[in-house]
Amino acid sequence: MAANSAKQLAKLGQCLQKFCKTTDFNRVMAKAVPVACTKNTCTVELAIDTEHANTYGTLHGGLTASLVDTMTTMALVANDSPPGVSVELSVSYMRPAAVGSTLLIHSEIVKLGKSMAFLTSEFRDKESGKLIATGKHIKHL
Question: How far apart are CA 28 and CA 52, in angstroms?
Fold first, then answer.
């Protein structure tokens, strides 16, 4: 993994701070904590709370998709790219993440073209390292 860029990590932190003040749907990111940001990648930590959960007490699948959308966009913005608009988004769910667990969400710019960006996200349990979900996101810039 490349070394953290102070500039990119600061930019990620600024973006996450905006979510702390919003009342729109992006508020789901308000509790995310920046961990790392390098050229083409961003990683945050998110403690799963009841506001993130479904009726079974695990991370809601729709929220997981939202986090793929938001975190891959953060990877773009932290690397001075425009946020773009979604063209395609998919999520593969491997195992549940229970309330009380903490996730590491790692997003990466796989390919950045003139008008399209291809991005991925990986959700892992911080304690066990087990893969929770993966996401793929294609954006028009």
Answer: 8
pLDDT tens-place string over residues 66-104 = 999 999 999 998 888 999 999 999 999 999 999 999 999
Angle in degrees, 0-180, between the axes of helices 6-21 and 61-78, rounded to the nearest 10: 130
Q: Is residue 76 a contact partner of residue 119, using CB atoms and an 8 Å limit?
A: yes
Paired tokens of 45: 């930590």
Residue 43 resides in a domain: yes
Distance of CA 93 to the CA centre of its chain: 15
C-alpha span between 32 and 133 (Å, rounded)? 17
- pTM, two decimals, is 0.89
CB atoms under 10 Å from CB of 123, counted, come to 26
Q: How many domains does the chain have?
A: 1
